[in-house]
Amino acid sequence: MSKKQEGSVPSIPASMQDAGYRFAQSGETMEAIARYVLGQCPTVLEDVPKEVKSALYAGFQLRKHELTGDKYYKVDGTTYIPLTGKPAGDDKGIVAFNVNVAMSYSPQEFGKMREADPTKHAVIKPLRDAFSSYASNSMADLLSKIRRIMNEGKTRQRAANKDFTEAMNKAFDDFDKRVRTAKDRGDVGADPVKFRVARDAFWKAYNAD
Questions:
Q1: Helix (H, G, I), strand (E, B), or coil: what is residue 96?
Q2: SS3 letters for 144-204?
Q3: DSSP output for 100-158
Q4: What is the dihedral of CA 83, 87, 92, 93, to 10 degrees?
Q5: Residue 203 half-sphere exposure, CB side, CA atoms within 13 Å?
Q6: In the chain, fewer beta carbons within 10 Å around the N or the C end?
Q7: What is the pLDDT of residues 110-138, one digit of tens each?
Q8: Distances from the Cα of 190 to the Cα of 45, 159, 175, 183, 194, angstroms
């Protein structure tokens, strides 16, 4: 299993000017990617095809693995003892887990693991939960960018209506961040996926002729 890649985490800006430059540059990169996705799948805001979501999530997973790398454990019977890194020398009894390993189990297999191997389940669950949140947030950011692109050039709206649309876009963006934060804090009532479905349904109805 590969280790965490060197230089995979963006460096801290050297100055406020550098921060501004790099922030603007990252925004341009996000827009270019969003336009690509929209070009490949024009209906992405209405319905994300299974194969498109699978491919995007595979990309999210690659990046998450770069960021988090491997976590090493020493197996002692049914106990997994966490290590600070890969030990030098004899690696007998040493196992490594990462997001790729964690997500290689189907939901059914992972569910059965709770009873069959609860200790292993406890090790893998945080990795799966962390990736689920990471991928959900990444997908939400991508769709938000695509939505902004789709709303470009709608200049024939009445000024008041335009102001309302801009206000609603901002409100939805704010609530999108809030629902994700609430979910990360363990709020069982916060569901980013359901929120995005409801938001998209609102705009579909509002923009209907």
A1: strand
A2: HHHHHHHCCCCCCCCHHHHHHHHHHHHHHHHHHHHHHHHHHCCCCCCCHHHHHHHHHHHHH
A3: HHHHTS-HHHHHHHHHH-HHHHHHHHHHHHHHHHHHHHHHHHHHHHHHHHHTTT-TTS-
A4: 0
A5: 19
A6: C
A7: 999 999 999 999 999 999 999 999 999 99
A8: 21, 34, 11, 5, 9
Its pTM stands at 0.70
Query: What distance in Å separates the CA atoms of residue 4 and residue 201, rounded to the nearest whole number?
Result: 40
CA dist 72 → 66, 99, 181 (Å): 16, 13, 29
Contact 106, 115 (CB under 8 A): no
Distance between CA 190 and CA 196 in Å, rounded? 11
Query: Rounded distance, CA 72 to CA 87, Å?
Result: 9
At a CB cut-off of 8 Å and minimum separation 6, what does 22 contact?
13
- Give the integer Cα–Cα distance in Å for 113 and 131: 18
Token duo for residue 34: 């969003």
3-state secondary structure of 79: strand
Return the sign of the alpha-carbon dihedral for residues 105, 110, 112, 113.
Answer: positive
Q: Pick the most confident of 96-105, 151-160, 162-171, 178-187.
A: 96-105
Token representation of residue 52: 């498109």
Dihedral sign, Cα of residue 36, residue 40, residue 44, residue 48: negative
